[in-house]
């Protein structure tokens, strides 16, 4: 890997960490509007944020309209998962607590990403990945059990929060993968992100229409919605989309495991949430899984660097002579 590539990778990791910090504030900020349903919070934050992504990238989306239409199935797949993610994510935090919701949602995303890349792309899962997955699953289980025993509310609510966190983690992995696949076939970052998040934002508008009235009942609620839409959802995903140009979805979702640490620290420090010993052990296991997955494999980097790829997708599915079989043709089937 060249110095330029290493710099690009380092910059992408930095952008992912910035996005993670911004996303880590969502639960604590959403808790400042307790009378607003998590569905309304989710629809407002990523619905408005997604449409803003589309507006910012409108020129690029229009310029790549033919390629996007050709890969409309992938765009719709990503958009549907963008719609699912905030509804499940904020509901998970509402039922299970901010720390549990973010850790389960983000802690399982790399696992779902690995499985998706194995099934859809034929990527090989290493022993290291399986070991990290086992640690992540064990850590999530311990965290959930800790919250169920420590929480003053219903244990069934914590279980529901865990299940919704799994749904959020899976949908996060799927739209990250879909966006990355669109960019792999030569669609510009702004076009890929703008189209996927624009579709997701549109799908969230009916949810916002039916649940969003409490957001207008006070200035504080409106400020909460505005912050969530503009800062973590718009700026955070802007950083995330730029980073996806340099790193695969599985790496991106792994780096963003730092979000739960931010969210948990804020939840414990500002919201007075309690984590028992098992909860902290679970957090440590998930952090260990993150570190294992982030360790670079020089052998894989040499193999990837030796494979020639095209910068512009082949026309009409024909082979250009220097690239692998045209992925655009595969996506359009």
TrEMBL record:
The keyword Membrane applies. Keywords: Cell membrane, Membrane, Transmembrane, Transmembrane helix. Residues 13-143, 160-294 form the EamA domain. It is found in: Cell membrane. The chain crosses the membrane at residues 41-62, 74-91, 97-115, 127-145, 157-175, 196-216, 222-245, 252-271, 277-295. GO terms for cellular component: plasma membrane. It is a multi-pass membrane protein. It holds the Pfam family EamA. Belongs to the EamA transporter family. This is EamA family transporter. It comes from Glutamicibacter ectropisis.
């Amino acid at each position: 890997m060249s110095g330029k590539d290493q710099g690009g990778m380092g910059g992408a990791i930095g952008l992912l960490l910035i996005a993670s910090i911004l996303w880590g504030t969502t639960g604590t900020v959403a808790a400042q509007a307790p009378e607003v349903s998590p569905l309304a919070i989710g629809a407002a934050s990523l619905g408005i944020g997604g449409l803003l992504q589309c507006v910012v990238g409108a020129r690029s989306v229009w310029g790549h309209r033919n390629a996007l239409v050709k890969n409309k199935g992938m765009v719709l797949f990503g958009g549907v998962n963008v719609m699912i993610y905030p509804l499940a994510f904020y509901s998970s935090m509402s039922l299970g607590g901010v720390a549990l919701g973010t850790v389960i949602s983000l802690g399982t995303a790399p696992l779902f990403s690995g499985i998706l890349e194995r099934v859809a792309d034929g990527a090989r899962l290493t022993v290291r990945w399986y070991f990290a997955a086992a640690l992540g699953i064990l850590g999530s289980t311990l965290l959930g059990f800790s919250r169920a025993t420590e929480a003053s509310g219903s244990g069934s609510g914590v279980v529901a929060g865990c299940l919704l966190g799994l749904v959020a983690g899976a949908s996060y992995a799927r739209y990250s993968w879909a966006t990355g696949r669109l960019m792999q076939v030569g669609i510009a970052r702004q076009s890929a992100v703008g189209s996927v998040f624009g579709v997701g934002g549109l799908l969230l508008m009916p949810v916002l229409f039916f649940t969003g009235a409490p957001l207008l009942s006070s200035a504080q609620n409106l400020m909460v919605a505005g912050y969530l839409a503009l800062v973590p959802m718009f700026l955070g995903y802007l950083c995330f989309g730029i980073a996806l140009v340099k790193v695969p979805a599985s790496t991106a979702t792994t780096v963003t495991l730092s979000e739960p640490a931010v969210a948990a620290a804020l939840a414990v420090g500002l919201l007075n949430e309690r984590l028992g010993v098992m909860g902290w052990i679970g957090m440590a296991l998930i952090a260990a899984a993150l570190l294992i997955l982030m360790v670079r494999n020089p052998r894989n980097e040499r193999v990837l660097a030796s494979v020639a790829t095209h910068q512009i997708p082949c026309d009409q599915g024909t082979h250009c002579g220097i690239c692998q079989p045209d992925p655009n043709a595969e996506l359009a089937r």
